[in-house]
Amino acid sequence: MQKHIYLIGICGTAMASLAGMLKQQGHEVTGSDAAAYPPMSDLLRELGITVHEPYAERNLDRRPDLVIVGNAISRGNVELERVMDEGIPFCSMASILHDEFLKGRESLVVAGTHGKTTTTSMLAWIYETASGRDPKFAPSFLIGGVPENFGTSFMVRPTRPFILEGDEYDTAFFDKGPKFLHYFPDAAILTHVEFDHADIYSDLDAVKTAFKRFVNLVPRRGRVVAYDASENVSECVAKAFCTVERYGFEEGSYWRLSDLGHDGPVTRWTLWRAGEKFAELSLPMAGEHNALNATAAAALASGQGVPVDAIVEALRTFHSVKRRLEVKAVAEGVTIIDDFAHHPTAIRETLRALRESRPGQRLIAVLEPRSNTLRRNVFESALIDSLALADRVALAGVFKSENIPVAERLDPERVVQGLLERGIPAAVHQDADAIVVALTPELRSGDVVVILSNGGFGGIYQKLPRAITEAAVAGRVAVRFS
Fold first, then answer.
1. Which of 120, 190, 329, 451 has minimal CB crowding within 10 Å?
2. Residue 70 has what DSSP assignment?
């Protein structure tokens, strides 16, 4: 039966995708958010879903049948308070996903501190490629990003495979457990386990407990494909009731990578399974971490019966994910790249990948400390280590710094001082506009500017290339062409 379903916090990556899935099921879908920005605002507009901005009680004057409460929504939100006062039925994103979409499906879940969006996208594309040979592989999926091969973050089909990005973040204000505990995987990937989300996890042990519970949901007939060069991952899979297949570069790995090499943006390697050659693989993405992500996706797909030739073809034709090393513009020879950075390890791997794929080019990192992880000083030393891989660094102030206790808050000035002590030119700027003004005159053709943020960052992705072009035309910037 068609319902009017309203999503509070609809512009979150997973919430926007869920909105599209519900509309595809025939429901009337509307929602609200404090502010909308691409790519999810574009997706919702294309779907014809009305988004109210900002939150307001009047947005619920037309009473919905059901309200889905995003995990960023807390008591005190004016819409949530009206929902509760009037007794409008509500639930979480994860619970409706399980009840409406996962029952009777084969649930394939990708989890881990890093790499899960890209790995989930690779796995979905492998299944999509395989469906050209056998329609039973046609996947449904829900991904916390937009894979460029699909141009959408979700798809719902009548076939059995349902591929999910498993988020360890909490579910809702009334359910503080991880979302992935609602997904009951038949098979799973576990990429990395590190301390993250310091706003909801007290320490690394708390993070590991969440992943142990996730692994404990996989039935005996299932499998977990797990990274092998992490003691944390080893601890999390140690008591699994199902088969565990480890992947990595170690000699004893069930899935082992060897002869890894880079040809510009293309990465090539040999993949071995249980000591026997599985395939020669290539991926049009840079970075050792992406080869590992691809290996995990290949391993899970193979174990579920996907043919080797489909895996090889899918990885060869994989086109990345929006906001993961995405080239946003090339202005006067300066390449501007967007990357959805949320953790010092992710920043390190992004910068390493750019070093490998663009040797000899000057690398400028522009960081907005916006995620709940990066806004906290517990990661300050690791952040300095990661940013030191750049040739120059520009930092914005901490996003909504007033929401982080002073004793816990990242100090950008200390980060800059740490970089200067290592000989890396660095500075803190008030906002995106100030960064554009400071950086534009110093750029030259051949430079690579990587913008690291998990938000809109004041429109810097559009402002910087425009400023470079305008300054070059006006002769105010010494852009030198190679």
1. 329
2. P
